[in-house]
Design brief:
The chain is α/β, with parallel strands linked by helices. The chain is built from eleven helices and 14 strands. The strands form three sheets. A six-stranded mixed sheet has the order 6-7-8-3-9-10, sandwiched between helices. It has a four-stranded antiparallel sheet with strand order 2-1-4-5, covered by helices on one side. Helix 3 packs across helix 4 and helix 5 packs parallel to helix 6. The two termini are 36 Å apart.
Length: 321
C-alpha cells in the first residue's frame, strides 16, 4: 500500500532523508521510530504531498505522490503532531467544514460526520466549541477529520504526545479500532506504544532506515538475549542454584529494586539465550519445588537503550564517528 524507494530529501545542504526504502502492506499498522531530527516527520510530509522528494520515489496504492498528488491526497488521512483546529467552532461544525474542504459529496456529508463522530467517541461533544475540549478530545477531533474521506491510508505523527495517561489510553484504544479499516503509519518515541499498536516497527536515524522488525523482535536483536524479571518466595541461595541449572540460562542477577526489601521473597533478573522455553522451565521448577512464583514477566530494553545500542552498532558498521 505504501512503497518508498531510495527516497532522499535535502533542505539546502541538510540531508533530512537519506535513500530511505520501506513498504507497508494494506491493512498493516506500522510504527516509525527515531530520535528527534531523524527524518520521521519529513518522510511523512512527503507521503502526504506537503513537499516533493529530492530524489527517489514514494507511492501510495501504486500512485506516485508527486505526479498524482491530488489522487494520493484523496486516499490519505493525515494527523500532524501540531494539528490546526478552529477553536471557536463547535465540533460538528468544524467537521462539516473539514468535509467540505476534503470534497466529501454533500449527499454523504451528514453520514460521514456521524460515522467518524461515533468512531472517535465525539457524539456528546458535537455542540461544544473546540476551545473547551480537553487535549485528548481535541486529538480525537483531529483523527475524526482525517477519517472523513474514508481514507485507505492514515498517517499519524506522534498521536499521543502531550496527552495525560488516561487520554493516552483512550487515543491508543481508538487507533486499535482502526486496524483493518485502513493502513496506518504512525510515528512515536514510545517503544511500549509501538508494541501495543503496531505489528511492525521501522527505525530511522539521520534519514536512514536502520532496522525493521516487530517491537519485541527489535528488542531481542538489540539485547542479543532474553531478560526475565522474577519474584519468588523461598530461600535465595536455593533459588539461585535452581535457576542457574535451567538449560539456556546464562546468568542470574539480583534485581536492584526490592532485592533485599523482603526477606521472605527474592527478586531476580534471569538472562537467557531464549525466552519462552526458559520461562516455561523456570515456572515448572519453581512450582515443582513448592516455592511461590509471585512474578514472572519479560523485560524489554527502554527505547533509549534500544536506540543507543542499535544506532551505535549501525554507525560502527558504517564507519561513522
Amino acid at each position: 500500500m505504501i512503497e518508498v524507494r531510495e527516497l532522499t530529501k535535502f533542505f539546502g545542504a541538510v540531508r533530512a532523508v537519506d535513500r530511505a526504502s520501506l513498504s507497508v502492506l494494506r491493512g498493516e499498522v506500522v510504527g516509525l521510530l527515531g530520535p528527534n531530527g531523524s527524518g520521521k516527520t519529513t518522510l511523512m510530509r512527503i507521503l502526504t504531498g506537503f513537499f516533493p522528494p529530492t530524489s527517489g520515489s514514494a507511492r501510495i496504492d501504486g500512485l506516485d505522490v508527486q505526479t498524482h498528488s491530488l489522487a494520493v491526497r484523496r486516499k490519505v488521512g493525515y494527523v500532524p503532531e501540531q494539528v490546526v483546529l478552529y477553536p471557536e467552532l463547535p465540533v460538528r461544525r468544524f467537521l462539516r467544514f473539514a468535509a467540505d474542504v476534503k470534497g466529501v459529496p454533500r449527499g454523504r456529508c451528514a453520514g460521514a460526520i456521524a460515522e467518524v463522530m461515533a468512531a472517535c467517541g465525539l457524539e456528546e461533544m458535537a455542540r461544544r466549541p473546540i476551545r473547551k475540549l480537553s487535549r485528548g478530545y481535541r486529538q480525537r477531533v483531529a483523527i475524526a477529520q482525517a477519517l472523513l474521506n474514508d481514507p485507505e491510508v492514515l498517517i499519524l505523527d506522534e498521536p499521543t504526545v502531550g496527552l495525560d495517561p488516561r487520554q493516552t489510553v483512550e487515543v491508543r484504544s481508538l487507533i486499535r479500532t482502526l486496524a483493518g479499516r485502513c493502513t496506518v503509519l504512525l510515528s512515536t518515541h514510545i517503544l511500549p506504544e509501538a508494541s501495543m499498536l503496531c505489528g511492525r516497527v521501522i527505525i530511522i536515524d539521520r534519514g536512514r532506515i536502520v532496522a525493521e522488525d516487530t517491537a519485541a523482535g527489535l528488542a531481542r536483536r538489540v539485547e542479543g538475549v532474553a531478560r526475565t524479571a522474577l519474584r519468588i518466595a523461598g530461600s535465595r541461595r536455593e533459588i539461585v542454584a535452581a535457576l542457574e541449572g535451567v538449560p539456556g540460562v546464562d546468568r542470574v542477577e539480583a534485581a536492584e529494586e526490592g532485592a533485599v526489601a523482603d526477606a521472605a521473597t527474592a527478586r531476580f533478573i534471569v538472562v537467557s539465550r531464549e525466552a519462552d522455553p526458559v520461562r516455561q522451565e523456570i515456572a515448572a521448577r519453581v512450582v515443582g519445588r513448592g516455592w511461590g512464583l509471585l512474578e514472572l514477566r519479560p523485560l524489554e530494553p527502554s527505547l533509549e537503550e534500544l536506540f543507543v545500542r542499535l544506532l551505535g552498532s549501525e554507525r560502527r558498521g558504517t564507519g561513522d564517528a
